[in-house]
Amino acid sequence: MSAEFATELALPGFMKLKPPAFEDSRGWFSELFSERRMEEAGLPARFVQDNWSVSNNRGTLRGFHYQAPPMAQGKMIWVVSGAVLDVAVDLRPDSPTFGQSASYELRAESREALFLPEQFAHAFLTLEDNTTLLYKATDFYSPEHERGIAWDDPVIGFDWPDWLETPVQSERDTQWPKLDALPRDFA
Prior knowledge:
Layout: E1 6-8, E2 15-17, E3 21-24, E4 27-30, H1 35-40, E5 49-55, E6 61-67, E7 75-81, E8 83-90, E9 101-107, E10 113-116, E11 120-126, E12 131-137, E13 146-148
Antiparallel strand pairs: 1-2, 2-10, 3-4, 5-12, 6-11, 6-13, 7-10, 7-12, 8-9, 8-11
């Protein structure tokens, strides 16, 4: 795997991606996605759905979301304006890092992306107003396979920023169960 393009973060498979950028006096240009580059890095190159997410306010928390097999989704994520604290939780049943979380601060000006493999739960907290994300998914959205985990689950034990007291959330995201209440096979 090309360390210049893909760098593994604190969980196996959770990757920071740095597509090359070409700069001159006009600004810069970068290929956001290259099937060839993904394949060379040993990452999935087939994506079937693109999503666009806009959050108006700092402190908006979306997640933890995932889809259960057989509709599990890998995701490739960019911040195109603003910044997020992006958090992944390993839900692969046989993984030695099952239930562990890792995070990465993703900012538009970094021109980086993240890759989360299938069977990872995903959440992000906006660090700035008017934050926009684009992300690709390796499988289609399936309401019957949609799942989530409580954002403040003590088993996951993610250390959210001190300034976050009451996040801006959807009603649905306030209702997700704790990790311990989920079946280990996530079916």
